[in-house]
Sequence to fold (197 residues):
Amino acid sequence: MLGMVGRAAEGFYQVCRGLWTVFKHSGRPPTTKEFPDVMPELPGAFRGRLALAVNPETGEHLCISCRQCERVCPDKCIDITAHKSPQTGKLELIDFKIDHGLCMFCGLCTEVCPTSCIINTSDFEMSEYSRGALIYDLKRLTLSQEESAYYFAKKDLPPPKPKAKPAPKPEAAGDAGESLAQQPSDVSQQPGPKAEE
Ligand code: SF4
Ligand code: SF4
Fold:
């Protein structure tokens, strides 16, 4: 008999506890967001879709094709194509591919990048109908100047410096030499002082 009374009292206590919890929360504002109508405010360190930022001032690509991101990636999902420019002797980026289907968003590639051009954006809506569509090429990865400026400010990254202009071609010096070489003949053709008669 005592056992039954004890169990009834325990049940009544648990019901009261549940009702009290409902009562406590009924006056509180909701902590859930009505996504996608209300987008969550994500911190700058959030690691979403990867992208390549450009110089917000000039719009030029910041990637120097050093391949550090490619080497550090544990999932081997970065594939860079670059060649050595015959004009400048420097590496030039041809294509940059990231397979977001393999990426685990660890952020290691963004940490090793010397120019801070590869960044994690706040975009997490990346659903696609095929795995192939998750491979982003250079065009899809490249951010606009406005987007780049936004992420540089949001992530508190140092503003990029403009790339150094290539040195003048050696042919220019050759041209100058030629024009100098032509000078004496030009001078000889100029009318000199008249000989005294
Ligand atoms: S976030 Fe990690 S897994 Fe994804 S590309 Fe960068 S290094 Fe690779
Ligand atoms: S580490 Fe940065 S600069 Fe180097 S290849 Fe990757 S994205 Fe380009």
Summary: The domain at 50-154 is CATH 3.30.70.3270 (Alpha-Beta Plaits). The mean pLDDT is 85. The chain is about 35% helix and 10% strand. The CA atoms of residues 20 and 26 lie 10 Å apart.
